[in-house]
Specification:
Blueprint (H helix, E strand, L loop, with lengths): L1 H15 L7 E2 L2 E8 L4 E8 L4 E8 L12 E7 L16 H5 L2 H5 L5 E5 L17 H16 L2 E10 L1 H12 L6 E5 L8 H13 L15 H6 L13 E6 L3 E2 L2 E5 L1 H19 L5 E4 L7 H18 L4
Parallel strand pairs: 5-6, 5-7, 7-8, 8-9, 9-12
Antiparallel strand pairs: 1-2, 2-3, 3-4, 4-6, 10-11
Length: 316
């Protein structure tokens, strides 16, 4: 309830245009900043890449103010698609804050957490028409804004759930060296696996888009799909610390009920990690058995993968 109250308050304050600021980053401008508490800041960024304004939540560690000479590594947390829209929609940049204990969990961690909007069904990519271009928004605009406004260093890790898990791996291979580690929780790192491709197109249609609006047809536009498919570019992930997890789609205690989205994520993830191993690329996996496509498992996976992320962020 406390989280929901804070979310509602933030939305009202941002809508009212409180604390209008500006800062250049490849043409992007910070047009709103709301400080929620001493750890939490929400930024509204007017983005040329998106053609609109999008939000980012930033969490600093509890000792951020007490260590004015220290710079902190960055942990980017990417949201997924659609799970919040069945009841009361939660803005996607607040997904992690609303549904997990990330605020409490990271309070004593020496890391700045960046949780950007990702656009429902946007798939962390430039769309076929060129806009929106979420990839440029995140890897250029948001990155430059964060690094100009917060005391962060150049050591970064990225983790995401569902479509955000895909985004974590896609950004890691398409921007080699930007992230020391990438973690996918119930993601789709092999988008051209038939069940994954069908799921991507179903998500697009359910969100009111055409099934080919993202990258075109997976058959006629195979090159465009492949260019953004982590499975097809595993060699570009060599040297990045990798973590992949998923459940099998079954509810604990109910083997007859299967979550088809988690089952598709599991199949996509397993083919991806099989290929990594075939190519001799290290990967840490947690295929934890029973588990559905839902927040309790992703909250648990953030905690489970923390030692892995901390090591990459040079905190271990």
């Amino acid at each position: 309830m406390r989280r929901l109250f804070r979310i509602a308050t933030v939305l009202l304050v941002v809508a009212a245009g409180v604390t209008i600021l500006s800062a250049a980053a490849e043409g992007a401008r910070v047009v709103g900043e709301v400080r929620i508490d001493e750890r939490t800041t929400d930024l509204a960024i007017d983005s040329p890449s998106l053609g609109t304004t999008a939000m980012v939540r930033v969490l600093v560690p509890s000792n951020y103010i007490a260590r004015p000479e220290h710079s902190f590594p960055q942990l980017w947390l990417l949201n997924g698609c659609c799970a919040d829209q069945d009841t009361v929609p939660t803005p996607d940049y607040l997904g992690w804050a609303a549904h997990t204990d990330v605020e409490e969990f990271t309070a004593d961690k020496d890391v700045v957490v960046i949780m950007p909007a990702g656009g429902y069904a946007a798939f962390y990519s430039a769309w076929r028409s060129g806009k929106p271009d979420w990839e440029t928004f995140h890897t250029t605009e948001v990155r430059q804004v964060i690094e100009s406004r917060f005391r962060v260093n150049q050591t970064r890790a990225v983790a995401g759930l569902s479509t955000g898990g895909y985004g974590a791996m896609a950004y890691a291979f398409r921007h080699k060296g930007m992230f020391a580690a990438a973690a996918s929780y119930s993601g789709l790192p092999n988008t051209l696996l038939p069940t994954a491709a069908q799921l991507i197109q179903l998500i697009l249609v359910r969100q009111g888009h055409g099934p080919e609006d993202l990258w075109g047809s997976q058959w006629r536009d195979h090159t465009a799909w492949s260019a953004r498919n982590p499975f097809d570019h595993v060699d570009d992930l060599r040297g990045t610390a990798l973590y992949v997890s998923s459940g099998n789609g079954r509810q604990a205690g109910n083997p007859w009920s299967t979550d088809p989205i988690e089952a598709a994520a599991s199949a996509s993830s397993r083919t991806f990690t099989d290929r990594l191993r075939l190519r001799g690329i290290p990967v840490t996996v947690d295929y934890y058995g029973d588990g559905t496509h839902s927040w309790p498992y992703w909250e648990r996976e953030l905690r489970t993968s923390w030692p892995f992320l901390a090591a990459a962020l040079k905190l271990a």
